[in-house]
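Below is one protein, fold included:
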Amino acid sequence: MAYTPELSQKHSCTLRRVAWALGKPMTRSLELIFDWIGEAVDPKKVCESCRDKSLCHECVFHKCQENSRAT
């Protein structure tokens, strides 16, 4: 990973509580949250605004766009 953002105390506490609820480590919980974001945020808007097209095939937003095209 090229960049590791620091979480504020508030957001670190929130992540910790979500991790407890999921019964997962914080790092895995954060990954699950990012996977979920692919369903919660408009993937078309994200893809159109993206500045890094190098890993589209791995991006949760790209996968959601493929799923919406299939239906």
Remarks:
- The chain has a mean pLDDT of 86.
- Helices lie at 9-22, 26-40, 43-49, 60-70.
- The chain has two domains: 8-37, 41-71.
